[in-house]
Design a protein that fits this description.
Region (Disordered): 111-167
Radius of gyration: 26 Å
Subcellular location: Membrane
Main location: membrane
Strand content: under 5%
Family: Belongs to the CDP-alcohol phosphatidyltransferase class-I family.
GO biological process, one term: cardiolipin biosynthetic process
Order of helices and strands: HHHHHHHH
């Protein structure tokens, strides 16, 4: 690739890194976070880093050992995490909604007593009902019906053979993994910028390569230790 053709690659990587940071910062600031998002955000980073590192390795712009190490660590971590989630359901596929727990927000909205309410009339049970002529509350029969429905649902949940939905824990990447991702983006940007403008010096890139390799290995060993102790997703 000619030197002048690296300019668009630098611009694309800059936009990708900036948008990724802005997306996470806005989501945390506005409170628009979810369990599924806690998995998708680091997984998206890993896929991006794996793809670019593998490409730079194939172009011989990065050492082959580093490309293999990064791709092996990230791909195995994704596979093992998905496997852990699958094992929570006893090795049976529960469906996309249950597996990724993507219907939590809808359930929370429905049960919040706002706008639409729920189909069984259980919403807004905390609102005081007007009293009738006999001094009772008109809302009491409805509330008793709601409690009976909840008891029946609980009995069905506790019935033999019922398989409860496994709650998906929130993903919390280790600090060493976050440092590794930042160094990986820095190395990728440095390699592309070096091909375009000749900076940073090759010595700086060699140092970044060693740092990425060391943190990749440390992160992989840390996650393997958590896996052996059964705490990978806790």
């Amino acid at each position: 690739m000619a030197t002048g053709q690296w300019g668009p690659a630098v611009a694309l990587l800059t936009v990708a890194a900036a948008s990724d940071w802005a997306d996470g910062a806005l989501a945390r600031r506005l409170g628009h976070t979810s369990k599924l998002g806690s998995y998708l955000d680091p997984f998206a980073d890993k896929v991006l880093v794996m793809t670019v590192v593998a490409t730079l390795g194939a172009l011989q712009l990065l050492p082959a050992w580093l490309a293999v190490l990064v791709v092996a660590r990230d791909s195995s971590q994704i596979v093992v995490t998905v496997g852990y989630r699958f094992a929570m359901f006893g090795g049976r596929w529960p469906g996309y909604a249950a597996f990724f727990e993507i219907d939590d927000s809808a359930g929370a909205t429905k049960g919040a007593g706002g706008g639409g309410g729920s189909d069984n009339g259980a919403a807004n049970t905390d609102v005081e009902a007007p009293a009738d002529a006999e001094g009772g509350a008109k809302g009491q029969p409805q509330q008793r019906g709601d409690l009976q429905q909840r008891d029946a649902h609980q009995q069905q949940h506790d019935a033999p053979g019922h398989q409860p939905q496994a709650e998906m824990p929130r993903m919390r990447p280790l600090l060493v993994s976050k440092v590794n991702t930042a160094l990986g983006f820095g190395l990728i940007g440095g390699v592309v910028l070096h091909q375009w403008q000749g900076v940073p010096p090759a010595e700086v890139l060699r140092g970044l390569e060693l740092a990425v390799g060391a943190t990749t290995l440390a992160s992989g060993l840390a996650y393997f230790w958590l896996h052996r102790r059964g705490r990978l997703l806790q």
